[in-house]
Every structure is written in structure tokens, then in C-alpha cells.
Amino acid sequence: MLFCCLFAAHRDGCIKAVGPVDAIRRQFSETSFEKIIDCSGKCVLPGLVDAHTHPVWAGDRVHEFAMKLAGASYMDIHQAGGGIHFTVEHTQKTSEEELFNTFKHRLLRMIRAGTTLVECKSGYGLNLETELKMLRVIERAKRSLDISISSTYCGAHSVPKGKNVTEATDDIINNHLPKLKELDLSGEIHVNNIDVFCEKGVFDLNSTRRILQAGKDIGLQINFHGDELHPMKAAELGAELGAQAISHLEEISDEGIAAMAKAKCAAVLLPTTAYMLRLKQPQARKMLQEGVIVALGSDFNPNAYCFSMPMVMHLACVNMKMSMNEALAAATINAAYALGRSHTHGSIETGKQGDFIVVNSSRWEHLIYQFGGHQELIEYVIVKGKVV
Ligand code: NIG
Ligand code: FE
């Protein structure tokens, strides 16, 4: 049966109806259609949702890729002052305009790979000045580009050089978060989520708890990095604090899985990072069986240089043993849920935002089956009813 969606880009960009072509044509006059796209023999899917990225930075780390291939671990490099610290040094020195321009270019590459809603973190500033510079860059993109953005304050991405964990935690709680609240009230920057890198040698469980709770107290959704390289009981903490989502989770405990399922806290799995760092794969099958809401993200950052959610779905299927249906749900409706946006994004339903991709194949599964070259397979990306 042929189905068709009608959307009104110049009104609110939302889907007006979904149904067979004939029924749609009876319901709406020809003049309701600004543009008609014939999708015969093709597949229409919801726009892809990328639930975890670090896309604002300067200073790539291709030299560290070579070090990792030669055997260095992520934490070896971090503790030697590289990794996040390297990117922080470069990001602090780079102008807001230059950061915006590279960020914009990255977002355009994400759109071409089918992403229509993306989570974007700060976290390469660490000091208040640079964290705000990154958040202003994200805010500017939110207001000016054809992609929806959920923004995340991630000032607790690493402990800045010259500070200990307690000093860094106090600085965030006493100085950064009150400033974010002030900027929200004045309408200058609106942040959606709060993040912490909860990891051995970075932010411990107690500091993580303090920061996340303080973020929640100013109205931010909790969405943080946990249980990646070491078991930290981050999943249990997130469930207790009412986190919307926790990312990574390669080292989650059985109790953590049960707690996340019960709390309806989404697990954002990041197959690019597990692949790049040759980590243990997250237990996607077990999480799905236990009823955890499993979402996917590209984790685009200088360590995992991947813009493509089709590639992420491919890795999730091959390395994490997800089915193609599970991967698509994880990269659409469940990723929207992880960002608190499943009422407006992530599926093709009347009233939701008109975000679609048109796949030039009669089998949508080609989006996952083919790895690489997705720009040719994705014929149209449509955001708020407009071809972008
Ligand atoms: O999600 N694990 C912490 N944060 C990022 C990596 C950031 C970086 O290495 O620059 C991640 O993989
Ligand atoms: Fe990350």
C-alpha cells in the first residue's frame, strides 16, 4: 500500500497526516502541497537522531590515533596530558567564529548522513570562559541551522590541569551552574542537559552525584558518561537521580542494568568508541532483554571521528549483535527519548516534527547493510517539512 505524509513547512513544520495517498488527496486540496516527492520504489524513514556528540573543538588528534594503534590506551594518553587535555588547550585558544565555522561544517556532514536531531556537548573548555564560548557556538547553530539540537553542558569532562577533583567540582557548582541559570533567564543560552565523565581518574561517583544533582536543581536533564572504562556504579547512580540517559556502559553491572530498566533511564550505546578503543562491547542484548531503552550515538569527537549514524547502526548490528530493526529504533525513537524529545521526534506520526530521510532503495535495511557511501543512498533529508 502506498503511504504519504503531508507537512506544512511554512506553518509549523509538523506532520499533518499519515496515510494512503488516496486518503491524503481526498483530505487536502492540491494547493496544500508546496512540493510533492515521488518516493515510489524508495523508503521513507524518520530523520536519524544522534544521541551523543562532542562536535565543537579545535585540534584534531590524528597523531594519537597512531599512538593507539601502536598500543597506547585511552587513559595512558589522557594521564600523560594528551587526549581531552590536548583538545582543551586548542579549543581555549580558538576564536568563537572559527569554532562556529568548523562546527557548522561538521553539522552539515551529519545532515548529509541523515541526522536531523543531534545532541551536542560542551566540555573542551573546562574553564567558565571557554565552556560559555562553546555553548554560545551551539546556541547560534540551534537558532540558525536546519538541524535540531539538544545542548549539553559538559564542564565536568575532565579535571582541569592545576585543580583537584573537589576544586573542579566546587567551581562547577558554585560558578558555572549559577551562570548558566542566569543566561537561561536572560534568554541568551538555553542548555538542555548536564553531563559528567564519571570515570576512575576523572570524576568519582561522589563528585558526579554532586554535579548532576546541582544541574538537575537548575532544571537540566541528567545525561552523562558512565561505566565506560571501569565499573563505577554510574548506572545505579543515574537511576537513583532520575537520569534521562547514561552513555557508554561497557562496564555496567547486572544491578545497574536492572536499575536502569526500572527507572526508564535510556542507555546510549556508542559502538564507534568501543570499536576505536578496542573495549569490551556494551551488553546490548542483555539490556534489551531486561527492558532497558537502548539508544545509539556517534560519539563524534577527536577520538572517534565518525559523523554517520548509518555507520553506527552497522557497527551496533555487527559488534553488539543488535538486529537491524533494533538499531533503527535505537537511532530514532529511542535516541529521541534519551534527549527527552520522543513526543516530538523520532517517528513518523501526525503532530510530530516533519523530519524524514528518503532512502533510494526498496529495502530500508540497505541503510545499515551498506557501510560507507551513504550520501548517495540517502536521496533527501527533510527537516521540519523542508528539503535541506
Ligand atoms: O565519550 N569518554 C569521554 N568523552 C568522550 C571522549 C572525548 C575525547 O576523547 O575527546 C567519549 O568517548
Ligand atoms: Fe562522549
TrEMBL record:
EC id: 3.5.2.7
GO molecular function: imidazolonepropionase activity; metal ion binding
Keyword annotations from UniProtKB, A to Z: Histidine metabolism, Hydrolase, Iron, Metal-binding, Zinc
Cofactors that this protein relies on: Fe(3+)
InterPro entries xref list: Amidohydro-rel, HutI, Metal-dep_hydrolase_composite, Metal_Hydrolase
UniProt keyword Iron, yes or no: yes
Protein name, per record: Probable imidazolonepropionase
Annotated organism of origin: Crocodylus porosus (Saltwater crocodile)
Catalytic class of the enzyme: hydrolase
Matches recorded under Gene3D superfamilies: Metal-dependent hydrolases, Urease, subunit C, domain 1
UniProt keyword Repeat present: no
Reactions performed catalytically: 4-imidazolone-5-propanoate + H2O = N-formimidoyl-L-glutamate
A GO CC term assigned to this protein in UniProt: cytoplasm
Upper lineage: Eukaryota, Metazoa, Chordata, Craniata, Vertebrata
Protein family (similarity comment): Belongs to the metallo-dependent hydrolases superfamily. HutI family.
Amidohydrolase-related domain boundaries: 44-388
GO BP annotation list: L-histidine catabolic process to glutamate and formamide; L-histidine catabolic process to glutamate and formate
This protein's pathway: Amino-acid degradation; L-histidine degradation into L-glutamate; N-formimidoyl-L-glutamate from L-histidine: step 3/3
